[in-house]
Design brief:
Strand content: 5-15%
Oligomer: single chain
Largest sheet: 14 strands, parallel
Helix content: 25-40%
Distance between the termini: 19 Å
Radius of gyration: 25 Å
Length: 461
C-alpha cells in the first residue's frame, strides 16, 4: 500500500475487494489526469472513470504524467492490460464505440459494471457478447436503450454468467414492452449458472420470476418488484429450493398471506427476507417464515400489515436476528420489548420509524439491552422525547448511523450543550445523523456533532 501514498490524497479506493486492483482516478482540483492507473501486485485489475476519457486522449494523459513519480505505476499497469478481468465504468458519457474499443483490448473480462451508462445501446450488448465469452458478472443498472433480442443474444453467448443486474431501468417503457414475460423467461432458460439476479424496478412479471426459480437451480439471491405488482402465481408449482438464501420483493405486491406461506415452505434456507411494502404479509405469514426459515437474520417488513404478534413469533423461532425493519407497521412497545429481551447480543440494525405506539420506555429498554446496535432509525416516532436521545447516548457506543427526525416532543431546554459534547465525545465512530431541520434544538445538536466529527473523520477530496 506504500505505492498508493505516491498518488496522494486525490486517489480514492473505489472498490472493496479481497485482493488488490487497478483503479482510475477522477478529475481533481489540481487538474491532474482524469485517468490514472495504478499497478498493484495482482492479476485482478479494474478500471474506473467518472469523467470518461476516450482512448484517443490517452496520449495526453501519458504526456501529463511524464514528470511525475506516478508515471512508473502507469507503465506497470500498461504491462498488465492482458490480465485485466474487471472493468467498472459509471458514467452517462460512455459511448458504444468507447466500450467496443476497451473490450477489444481486454478479452479476459469477467466482471463488467456499466451502471448508469445511459448512452450505451443494444449494440453495446452485442459487443459484450462478442468479446466477453467468459463473462461472469454483469451490471446494467439504470440502462434503458436496449431491446429483448439484444439481452437474449448476450446471455446465449455468455453461458458462464453468474450475476446479472438489470435494476432501476426507469425509462424503458417503450423498449421493454416486448420483454415482459417472454424476455425474462428466455434469460432464465439461458442462464443455468446464475447465482444472483437483480430485477428491481423492471417489468418482470409472475411468469418471469417463476422461470428463474425453476430453471436457475444455483440461484441464491433474487431481487424483484417495485414496478409491476407480483402475485402468488410467481411461486406456483415450486419444489423445495435449498439454494435460495436472499429474497427481496419490493411492493406494491398482491402476494397474499397464502403466498408468503408458500415462500416460507419453498425456501427453508433463507437468510434474508425483505418484503417492504408488501401489504399481504400478515402475522401468520411472519410466523410461518420464522418457523420454516430458522436461518433468517435479515428482515425488512416495512409497511407490512403486522401487529406485535409478529415480533413474538420472531423471538420464538429465530435464535439470532441481526437486522430488522418494522417501520410503519403499527407495532407498539410490546414488539420492541420482545426484540430487546431476545436479541440483546445479535441486533446491529434496527428500523422502527413511524410507529406512534412506541414510547421512551420501550426505546430505552431496546438501547439498554442491545448495545451492539450500529444503525438505529426512530424517526417519526412521535411519542419519543429527549429521554430516548439521552438513553441512546448513554448506551449505544457502537452507533454509526442514527435517524431521529420528527421527534417533535423535544423540549428547547432539554438538551444542553454539555449533553451534546458528551454525546460526541463518546461516539467517535458516529458518521451520520439525520435530524428534523424544523427544530432549532436538533439543529444545534447536528451542528455540534458535525463540528466535532469533522476533526476526526477523513476529509473528502
Amino acid at each position: 500500500m506504500n505505492k498508493m501514498n505516491l498518488i496522494g490524497k486525490k486517489l480514492a479506493l473505489l472498490m472493496l475487494l479481497s485482493t488488490s486492483y487497478v483503479s482510475a482516478m477522477a478529475p481533481n482540483a489540481n487538474n491532474e489526469p482524469d485517468s490514472l492507473l495504478l499497478r498493484l501486485p495482482t492479476d485482478v485489475t479494474a478500471v474506473f472513470c467518472k469523467d470518461w476519457l476516450t482512448l484517443e486522449e490517452e496520449a495526453k494523459v501519458d504526456s501529463a504524467l511524464t514528470n511525475r513519480k506516478e508515471r512508473k505505476f502507469l507503465e506497470d499497469a500498461q504491462k498488465s492490460l492482458a490480465a485485466r478481468d474487471i472493468i467498472i465504468l459509471d458514467n452517462k458519457n460512455v459511448t458504444d464505440d468507447d466500450l467496443k474499443s476497451i473490450l477489444s483490448k481486454f478479452q479476459n473480462t469477467k466482471d463488467l459494471s456499466l451502471k448508469n451508462c445511459t448512452n450505451l445501446t443494444g449494440a453495446a450488448l452485442i459487443d459484450i457478447a462478442t468479446h466477453c465469452a467468459h463473462l461472469k458478472h454483469l451490471n446494467l443498472e439504470g440502462w434503458h436503450q436496449f431491446k429483448r433480442p439484444d439481452i437474449i443474444t448476450l446471455v446465449k453467448l455468455c453461458p458462464e454468467l453468474e450475476t446479472i443486474n438489470l435494476s432501476w431501468n426507469t425509462k424503458i417503457d417503450k423498449f421493454w414492452a416486448s420483454i415482459k414475460n417472454p424476455g425474462f423467461v428466455e434469460i432464465a432458460n439461458n442462464c443455468p449458472n446464475l447465482i444472483t439476479a437483480d430485477f428491481c424496478r423492471t417489468y418482470i412479471h409472475d411468469e418471469g420470476i417463476n422461470a428463474f426459480l425453476k430453471k436457475c437451480l444455483k440461484l441464491k439471491t433474487l431481487k424483484v418488484g417495485g414496478r409491476v405488482s407480483i402475485t402468488n402465481a410467481a411461486f406456483n408449482g415450486l419444489e423445495i429450493n435449498a439454494m435460495l438464501t436472499h429474497l427481496h420483493i419490493t411492493g406494491p405486491a398482491d402476494i397474499t398471506e397464502e403466498g408468503f406461506i408458500v415462500i416460507a415452505v419453498s425456501f427453508p434456507n433463507l437468510i434474508m427476507a425483505n418484503f417492504p411494502g408488501c401489504r399481504g404479509l400478515t402475522d401468520k405469514g411472519v410466523e410461518m417464515l420464522a418457523k420454516k426459515c430458522g436461518n433468517l437474520v435479515n428482515l425488512n417488513f416495512y409497511a407490512c400489515t403486522l401487529t406485535d404478534l409478529s415480533a413474538e413469533s420472531l423471538t420464538m423461532y429465530l435464535p439470532k436476528l441481526e437486522k430488522i425493519n418494522l417501520g410503519y407497521t403499527g407495532i407498539t412497545d410490546i414488539a420492541v420489548d420482545y426484540l430487546a429481551s431476545s436479541y440483546n447480543q445479535s441486533l446491529i440494525e434496527v428500523d422502527i420509524f413511524s410507529n406512534y405506539g412506541i414510547t421512551d420506555e420501550a426505546n430505552k429498554s431496546l438501547v439498554t439491552h442491545c448495545k451492539n446496535i450500529t444503525k438505529l432509525n426512530v424517526s417519526d416516532c412521535k411519542n419519543l422525547t429527549e429521554v430516548s436521545f439521552k438513553a441512546i447516548a448513554e448506551n449505544l457506543h457502537k452507533l454509526i448511523w442514527l435517524n431521529f427526525c420528527e421527534l417533535r416532543r423535544f423540549q428547547e431546554s432539554s438538551i444542553t450543550l454539555m449533553d451534546i459534547m458528551t454525546f460526541t465525545q463518546d461516539y467517535e465512530e458516529l458518521k451520520e445523523l439525520q435530524k428534523d431541520d424544523s427544530t432549532e434544538t436538533t439543529n444545534v445538536v447536528i451542528n455540534e456533532v458535525i463540528k466535532r466529527l469533522s476533526k476526526k473523520l477523513p476529509q473528502a477530496n
